[in-house]
Amino acid sequence: MYLEIKGVSRQIKQEMVLNQVDLQMEKGKAYLLLGKNGAGKTMLMRAISGLIRLDEGEIWINGKRLWKEISFPESMGILLENPGFVKAYSGYENLMLLASIRKKVGEREVLQALEKVGLKENMHKKYRKYSLGMKQKLGIAAAIFEQPDLILLDEPTNALDEKSVQDCLKILQEEKERGALLLISSHNPEEFMDLADEMIYMDAGRIKKKEMKC
Predict the structure, then answer these.
(1) Which of 11, 24, 72, 152 has its CA 20 to 30 A from that of 62?
(2) Which tens digit of pLDDT belongs to each residue from 25-39?
(3) 198 near 210, Cβ under 8 Å?
(4) CB-based contacts of 14: which residues, under 8 Å, 6+ apart?
């Protein structure tokens, strides 16, 4: 298994936001996280990404234990609420800045990602002037442009129009076929039913049910 979550728990202000979570996930598959607000979906993504520490349990990614052998997943793309882009930079400049940090890809991959999400015509526009939909597209581009093994997406279709939703789904299908592991949280599960291989239902920080697609 590429991603193994074993007995993971986390308490914040007397609330168990993650409670004995156990999951196994493979590359080349898409997993859909479902549940109401506060169910623990975003917290689970934050734990997997290394953004929060655990009170109990272990997370193993590609055979390496998080917070022991690695501090963050070594090959990860992530879209969470309010991504930290530089407002005074353009979309292009923001992605080039990210590319310069990890030095895995260059301008060619940045331009390809911007074109895929439909931002190439606006790539030199300042981020602060982007609409909500354009900001979301840039977040998706940032999550995929390095072709990571693990892609975590929290509500990726928020603020997107119907055409952009379909473009997003096409991109995610391509990433899955490339061999990436996709973990997606959404309040609109019907959008992802063709993409998802397994649905994971959360409530009060626990895994309540898992359903494999027939």
Answers:
(1) 11
(2) 999 999 999 999 999
(3) yes
(4) none
